[in-house]
Amino acid sequence: MESQLCGVQFGGSLFALTDPFYMIMLATNLGPEFVVWDKAASIRYKKPGLGRVRAEFRLTAERLAEVRMQLGVRGGRM
């Protein structure tokens, strides 16, 4: 992992590692008839990356239902 002048892991590299997960999670739940693109993202760093880091990804049933409603889709996987 790339580190900054301060000796901590570079936030941009950490963020880039997380980029595909929500797209994959959403595409898996919507199915192959949909193409999913991520247009924007944000991240909240809690502390400097010194050693092992962790990321959590959540796609709740409620959020998935909202997306399906906006697309006019019913049912599906989760």
Give an account of the 3D structure.
With about 80 residues, the chain is mainly α. It is about 35% helix and about 0% strand. The protein is elongated. It contains 3 helices and no strands. The chain has helices at about 10-20, 20-30, 60-70.
- Count of DSSP helices? 3
Q: Write down the overall geometry.
A: elongated
Global mean pLDDT? 83
Regarding quaternary structure, how should these chains be classified?
Answer: single chain
Terminal CA distance: 33 Å
Strand content: under 5%
Give a count of the beta strands, DSSP E runs of length 2 or more.
0
Low-pLDDT stretches = none
Radius of gyration: 16 Å
Query: Would you list the SSEs in sequence order as H and E?
Result: HHH
- Characterize the biggest β-sheet: none
Report the structural category. mainly alpha
Q: Summarize the amount of helix as a percent range.
A: 25-40%
What does this entry show, briefly?
The chain is mainly α.
Name the features.
mainly alpha; 0% strand; 78 residues; 37% helix
Note the topology.
Layout: H1 11-18, H2 21-30, H3 61-71
